[in-house]
Amino acid sequence: MVDQTGADILSQIRQGNRPSVTVKMATLSIKPGHRYSVPDWETSNRQMGDTAAYKRNVSHDIRQEARTLRNETSNKTYWDKTDNSRRLRDRINDLTRWKDNLASCAQEVDTEMETLTLTKEELERMLAATALPLEVAVECLTLRERRCGTEVVSDPVEAELKKEVEVIGGIQKTLQHRISKAFEQICLLQEARHQLTCDLQNKMDTLDVDGTCLSLTETSRDISLKPNPMRLLPGFTSPQQWEQFSRSNVSRAREEMDASLQLRANMKLTKAQLLIELQAQHMATDFALRKRAHQLEQACSELLWQQKQTYDEIAELEQDIRGLEDDLGAKTAPLKLVQTRLENRTMRPGADLCRDEVHFGLVEEAQQLEATIRALKEKLAQAQHSLQALQQHQACMEEDLSRKQDALFLEQRSMETRKRLATTAHTELTPDSIVPLANSSGRHALDLL
């Protein structure tokens, strides 16, 4: 049997002829299992291609979204950092502007405090200079109390001398009132300046912090991750509150400076008016004394009694002053103790820095001690002032007693005494021989912070 090749068989099939083939029977090895049809196979291939295309599209979209996200986040991060750096620079500019305003205002307050202190010292010198005219007037009145017989008359000299004492007393009260007002105003200026100084120091510290923050970069060594850096701390203020705080400090300082300026103007006007009034009274008294200079008398018994009472009062007052000084010294140690406790407790860290009952108790104790010390100092100052006044008045009485010899001598002595006013009371009442009183801080020159 002749075998046909596969090519011959395929050619016959294409020509539509049934091939005549003698097939050799053989045993085929068929793989077991499910077999797919050609359409299934084609469908599987198509699905595989479609799935691959879909996965590629998804991957392409994800890649594009990832690139977009990277660009957006990079730009967002860059511009956020840039915007915050700009905000830091703007904040630093605001801080610098307010720092300059506070510093300028503090300097103006210093200048005003110095000017007001100098004006107050002028009034203090004028007040000190009124002691001599008052002493002379009182001396003349005391000498005239020794008149006897028909010479004991209420003449124009006596009326003018009494009026002079009243005028000088009124001048001293007015000057003392103005000096007290000036001292209070200086304290208010110092308080306003303290607020400005504290605010200024805070601005400088904040500038250091914000300047350091602005200088930091991604490559700085000092940067690190922080736990909960976005927490809100107690005491946070809004920008409006922050600006209003500094604005209020500056506004208060300027109000106090305006009040000080008005007070200085009133003080200068008062000084000029008092000088004119005092000089006019001096001229009237001198004119009357020249006419009736020989009519003087002194009540020795009354003065001696007053002198004895004054000595007794001085002795009792000195004893009380020593007691006040002892009590005042005994309060220093308790005050040091409570202030040390309060200062040491400020070192408590974190949330332990709380205003507990101990804090309130210590504050109350400190306030009570300070109030006690102030009361003792005030009473001690009053007692010392009263002692000084008693001693001065006692000296005047002793001086008056030594001048009560005879009427002619008293008349001539009065005339000579009145001549002492020619170089003092009739001038600016600020002779070189009078030592200026110390200012409120105990110094002649302001030691500004």
Automatic annotation (TrEMBL):
- Keyword Chaperone, does the record have it? no
Recorded hits in InterPro entries, A to Z, give:
Tektin-like, Tektins
Location within or outside the cell: Cytoplasm, Cytoskeleton, Cilium axoneme
Q: Supply one GO BP term.
A: cilium assembly
Query: Where is it predominantly found?
Result: cytoplasm
Give the matching Pfam families: Tektin
Assigned keywords, A-Z: Cell projection, Cilium, Coiled coil, Cytoplasm, Flagellum
The answer, when asked if Cell membrane is one of the entry's keywords, is no
Which residues are in coiled coils?
Answer: 359-400
UniProt superkingdom: Eukaryota
Offer a single GO CC term for the protein: axoneme
Q: Tell me which family the UniProt entry assigns to this protein.
A: Belongs to the tektin family.
Q: What is this protein called?
A: Tektin
